Amino acid sequence: xxxxxxxxxxxxxxxAMVTRITNAERNARFGQFxxxxxxxxxxxxxxxxxxxxxxxxxxxxxCEEAADTCSWRPQRIDSxxxxxxxxxxxxxxxxxxxxxxxxxxxxxxxxxxGVWKPTAxxxxxxxxxxxxxxxxxGRNFSRQDWPHLEWPGNPPGDGGPDPSDDILEVEVIGPGYxxxxxxxxxxxxxxxxxxxxxxxxxxxGDCDGDFGPKTTKAVxxxxxxxxxxRTGVLDANTMTEITYEILRxxxxxxx
Length: 255
Fold this sequence. Notes:
The protein is of the alpha+beta class. It has two domains: about 10-170, Muramoyl-pentapeptide Carboxypeptidase, domain 2 (2-Layer Sandwich); about 180-255, Orthogonal Bundle (Muramoyl-pentapeptide Carboxypeptidase, domain 1). About 30% of the residues lie in helices and about 15% in strands. It has six helices and nine strands. It has a four-stranded antiparallel sheet, covered by helices on one side. It has a three-stranded antiparallel sheet with strand order 4-3-9, covered by helices on one side. β3 and β4 form a beta hairpin. The radius of gyration is 20 Å and the shape is elongated. The two termini are about 30 Å apart.
């Protein structure tokens, strides 16, 4: 058997093994994990989701066919979420906004090691509208994931954003950022990963939601550890890298 490049994923689809492109190739074609160009997708059911700009058009086409031909209607479509695959140390396609979890009702997570109940999600006729355009359905994975749809490979030939697409800008959190709750979340996350909690008298000060000089120092220390440019602000790349490292650490601890 030919050796696969590092980062290549193999999944069982029905009776066949399917080889997907490597993570490095995916970064080159769709944007860096967690720092991709996102567009909003308003579906025919009145449910809004987001998608990687390169596949937004083909996603809309599949949604339009499903709305025209299937009685099943989604009420929620989750997409962009830079994280690891549940129970794994591998990055999820959600981190490229190339995966969607589609539900008829607000979802309840299955128990560890469990799977979604088929009644919680859609059936084969709905999935077929997406599969005919090249999407994978998680129902066919060796570890079944019923509500999951994903785009596995190259950007589609008719892909790319439409001129009217709503391009989403990822915010940068830095000095003067006025959402104290968001700053506190990142102070806790930085303290956890650097093993230096934000607290009175600590090297980074209190976890108070104020992005001041000590928080700037914490961000620069994290960026130094990550080997990325030391800007002192939480841009999309920094936030994604820190989140990914924390999740990878948790996955390693569970083994």
